[in-house]
Amino acid sequence: MASARSSFSRSARASVRDDLLTRFSDFARASAPSAAFAVGITAAIGFSKPAAAATLVQWHGLMQNNDLRSLPELLHPQAVFRSPMAHKPYAGAPMVSLILNTVSKVFVDFAYRRELVSSDGLNVVLEFSAKVGERELKGIDMIRFDEAGKIVDFEVMIRPMSGLQALGEEM
Fold this sequence. Notes:
Layout: H1 2-7, H2 10-31, H3 35-44, H4 50-65, E1 75-82, E2 90-91, H5 93-106, E3 108-117, E4 123-132, E5 135-145, E6 151-159, H6 161-170
Helix pairs in contact: 2-4, 3-4
């Protein structure tokens, strides 16, 4: 193991790790494995925060099944939701859960397209596409986790404006 580390640069190792994480996240979205499986895989490939990775896998499973009933288990009690339509953030796990449950019922053909993970493993950006009525939209979910893997901050950005307006009308 030490010889492999010395023969590859830090950036090369990071590139391989990032590639493996991307492949794993694609697999996770397709199969929605258990949290225990996610923790094992992420630990094996050196993901720095397996608790956050396990929560992310659970989040993908909830969205894939369009059933967010167990979302409160993933949220920190003081979680914050930052809406693309409101200046003031919404605070508290019950409010975050209510908003995300409502939005999940409004979106049609929702799918995540790309996933980016920060080097510390506590922040992800998930690019998505969906429809609201006849409007197609794209957006990103920016999610921050604490060390225990709980979601502490969930920020959404949506484009185009007509898609955001359609979402606002349905909410």
